[in-house]
From TrEMBL:
Species of provenance: Postia placenta MAD-698-R-SB12
Pathway field: Lipid metabolism; fatty acid beta-oxidation
Superkingdom of the organism of origin: Eukaryota
Biological process annotations from GO: fatty acid beta-oxidation
Protein name (record): Enoyl-CoA hydratase
Protein family: Belongs to the enoyl-CoA hydratase/isomerase family.
InterPro entries for this protein: ClpP/crotonase-like_dom_sf (IPR029045), Ech1-like (IPR045002), Enoyl-CoA_hydra/iso (IPR001753), Enoyl-CoA_hydra_C (IPR014748)
A GO term from the CC aspect: mitochondrion
Coiled-coil region: none
Keywords linked to the UniProt accession: Fatty acid metabolism, Isomerase, Lipid metabolism
Leader peptide range in chain numbering: none
CDD domains: crotonase-like
GO molecular function list: delta(3,5)-delta(2,4)-dienoyl-CoA isomerase activity
Classification via Pfam families: ECH_1
Amino acid sequence: MSESTLSTLSSQHINVSEPISGVALVELSRLWTDFGRTFDSIAREPSVRAVVLASALPKGFSAGIDLNSLGTLDGPAVEPARRALQLREHIRAFQHSIAAVERCPYPVVAAAHGIALGLSIDIMSACDVRYAASDAVFAIKEADVGLAADIGTLARLPKIAGNQSLVHELAYTARNFTAAEAERMGFVSRVVPGGRDDVVRAALALAGVIAQKSPVAVLGTKHLLVHARDHSVQENLDYTVTWNSAMLQTADMKESLRAVKAKEKPQYAKLLPKL
């Protein structure tokens, strides 16, 4: 896959590039339906092995949803049941778009800096690894605008963070919290001193390490981790038996052993395109 191939996935508000072989860098300037389409397209690229999600904006990851758009949710004057059905489809489509990060078979590393409010938390919660620049400021902002977060924060964050009391506090109060507090609660795994360029550089370095591993092993690991989150221990163990009954037949295992014996870096084949 060439740089030009990945760059064709760029759109007006999303830039896609390949700064490191096998690593896709997705930079956002706004967040929309293009977001889901972009990640679903990346998922079909067989040479991608890891993704870094960052913002192209100098001041922050995202200030969240456009408040002006909330004023349009009243819509036409139709009776409540029909209006509720319209809103239901709107919310489901939005959820599906953001969940493309989780659907993506490759690990996604979020690199947050500056302001990261509301929708930023929804998106980052769907990522596999979250890094934050030391200047990052987060908030679950929905309570301040009259609604409960409905795009993923309330579903995923309680399963990510180790401090459930703090998750509730932040969701109820909509107060800002720092990168250091985000790290303590387990929302981010690393705080990188500095700003955007520093955290993106660190995220790319991590993605570069991941991209050197067996793509079959990494894809399977993500798939099984997401399954484990939503199932019991025994259900995940049983499912893993079925999954690895197929995946243990990969040529990547032989290549890994060959490389160890030869003291060389393994050369894994590209993943095949989906049928």
